[in-house]
Amino acid sequence: MAVKTYKFNDITQLSPHFNVKEFKCKCGGSHDILISDELVDKLEKLYANLNCSKIIITSGYRCAAHDKNVGGSGTGQHTKGNAADTCCYGQDGQPISSKTVCCAAQDIGFSGIANINTSYQYTHVDVRSGSKWYGDETKGNSSVTSDFYTYFGTKKESDSMEMKGIDVSVHNGTIDWNKVKAAGIQFAILRAGYGRVATQKDGKFEENYKNAKAAGIPVGAYWYSYAVTPDEARLEAQVCLEILKGKQFEFPIFFDQEEKKTLDTGKANCSAMIRAFCEVLEKAGYWVGLYTSRSCLSTHIEDDIKTRYAIWAAEWASKLNYSGSVGIWQHSEKGSVDGISGNVDLDIGYKDYPSMIKAKGLNGYGQPNPPVPDTDDGIIVEVTIDGEKYSGKLNKA
Q: What CA–CA distance (Å, rounded) separates 360 from 369?
């Protein structure tokens, strides 16, 4: 991809989350700015991969003089428009560890990656060609590893063991959850309800929640949607919140979109409804996602949805024929599990949602770290990295 030249005062929006002004050299001069298209593209993928609330570019393009002033060679990747030093923030407003960012950047394909300081809060990424640099600037400027997962002792999600799960509703009748647990089921997604009226709470939701928890089975929930507009989806979200109140969920809360009349409204509207529902629940502190069929993921869902939210895909087959990232696969509607009469939906979980949700303090588990004090307008931030000072205000999400 090309490296493009922008005027020093350009404010072009390069992508959904990045603007030219964020990459401006901090020397204070009025010279041009170089920015690689590939760099911006990969930063967007990093944003989605980590489910960021924001990424701050603490240092983007550097003129040769400024690069030398902050300890560089004057000819490095920053001077070519190929590099950015970043601070990534999660949905809880807290910085994401550079250890996590380095691993994600490796998966995305950045050719230059490095932790910057001992707080493991800032990460260098670049798209250099012809070589690879995986560094840790606390150890010097040499490459330290060929695999950040090994270097930081972090386990890949793809290396995790598959978890056996089920999803249930009132239609499954009375469930013996102790037998379900003994049968090897490791999680359950419970229908909380459907539609826009509180009386449409699933008739077995309270019982299933109580008894699954008592049996030691981690749970999530789903809301079956009949919405045909974003406003109706928001109403469904508000009802869902009332029913979830006071409970704790180790798995995400899913928006179940599969009604024909809903799908007939088209891709743009289906995607708008998903965003509307999920935004309401996210603001209330829930990890949210989408349940739909594998075919609908391809035909009715816009791309940002597939990377922004947890995906639970249904395809009743021996293999999931979907190349995107999926957290849960519903592979059968005619399963058999001890403790449940008749058929039951069977699922496979691929991500350690319980650990991630609890670490972020979502889904009723409380925020693990107190929030940074803020004003009515936002959080004031000031950081210094490699001699460069960044200060500004983070707008509230």
A: 9
Q: How far apart are CA 65 and CA 71, in angstroms?
A: 10
Residue 325 sits in which domain range? 161-351
Beta-carbon contacts of residue 130 (< 8 Å; ≥ 6 apart): none
Q: Which of 117, 131, 19, 126 is nearest to 79 (CA)?
A: 126
| Residue 371 burial by Cβ neighbours in a 10 Å radius (0-12, 13-18, 19+) | exposed
State the total domains in the chain: 2
Q: Is residue 9 part of a domain?
A: yes
Residue 283 forms part of a structural domain: yes
190-213: per-residue pLDDT in tens?
Answer: 999 999 887 899 999 999 999 999
d(CA 260, CA 385): 53
Please check whether residue 359 lies inside any domain of the structure. no
Q: Is pTM, for the whole model, over 0.90?
A: no
Return the ∠ at Cα 302 (arms to 86 and 355), rounded to 5°.
Answer: 55
Say if 201 falls within a structural domain.
yes
Residues 125 and 234 in one domain: no
| Cα gap 256→233, rounded to integer Å | 11
Distance between CA atoms of residues 165 and 190, nearest Å:
11
Q: Is beta strand 133-136 parallel, antiparallel or unpaired with respect to 344-349?
A: unpaired
CATH of the domain at 152: 3.30.1380.10
Dist. CA 24–CA 27, nearest whole Å: 9
CA 146 vs. chain centroid, Å, equals: 25
Other CB atoms within a 10 A radius of the CB of residue 372 amount to: 11
Indicate the DSSP class of residue 133.
Answer: E
Express each pLDDT in 121-137 by its tens digit: 999 999 999 889 999 99
Q: What are phi and psi of 74, to 5 degrees?
A: 90, -5
Burial class (CB in 10 A: 0-12, 13-18, 19+), 312: buried
